[in-house]
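Study both lines:
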Amino acid sequence: MTKIVNSWNDFDPLKHVIVGRAEHSVIPPEEPATSEKVPIDSEMRGMWGPRPLETVEKAAAQLDFLAKTLEEHGVKVDRPTPLQWNQHIQTPDFRNDSMMTCMPPRDILLTIGNEIMASANSFRCRYFEYLAYWPLMKQYFDEDPEFKWTQAPRPRLTDKSYKHNYYDEQISLEERLERTANKDFVTTEVEPMWDAADVLRLGKDLFIQHGLTTNRTAMEWFKRYYPDLRVHAVNFPGDPYPIHIDATFVPLRPGLIINNPQRRLPEEQRKIFEANDWQIVDAAQPAHDTPPPLCYSSVWLSMNCLVLDHKTVICEASEVHQMEQMDKLGMNVIPVPFRDAYPFGGALHCATADVYREGGCEDYFPNQVEDPTLV
């Protein structure tokens, strides 16, 4: 019996992975979700259309090099099938002038055990992005009799799914941070909405970031769908634009996690880790003061690394401070140039989705404490 799909965390030995593609990528037009997630001072605000060909070619080359590096380290690599993202999409509830990309599989696919689930994204432009991965899902389905191929409930994404005029150009950074601390986000609770990149898998525990892309209704859905797992709703008040967890909270091996020093996990939530002898270390400072051109993300993509096993990690080649820290933490570092790919959807972990890691569903938090985050 061939077992294709198995993964319970992001640090056990990686044997099979999907690496995204940049071809045909588009900067999507503003919509209720995206307009509230792009910082007011960002050069990306109001911009949309096909990404410049030169940038696509550079990103594609770096994605290809990542795939080659993984293969050289014994990892089987699959790639999605890009769609023509520069075409309008329509449902009974909305019309959008384009889609986006399939560079970051991490946003779309969530692997838990022998199941790969397509997410319920809040971006309208990402509504059909899952289709780029469907040929691979069918292949795994044909080859692995235990593989569960799942699609989370599709949100309708009507205007009721969003708080309109949530931000305006007059709002200060302090007011944004206050809203984050108060768990006041642009998405409403009329239906479950979530990005896979908001979900941190640690065996029997799922730590899900409540922010601009994932709502509380989604967490309640996770609790009911996975009754044998513990679902925690985590929040990082220092982030004015809380989108995805992988540049904020990154496990390297059992018992060790790095945390963005500007977006620290609140003290009452740290107790979950401390009670089980986990060390939470402030991540090293980014090597760059600004993100690359045409990039939505922050400079903290520096900590968005890809862990191959408990002692090996791939880091972006120019992130010298992060690589130095990884070395001090006992990790063997593989540098891979990836900064040209950042604008297409994130860094090294964003650009991948697990298919197979060795290991099973471990309980890393057997010492239960009073947990205000538990859903």
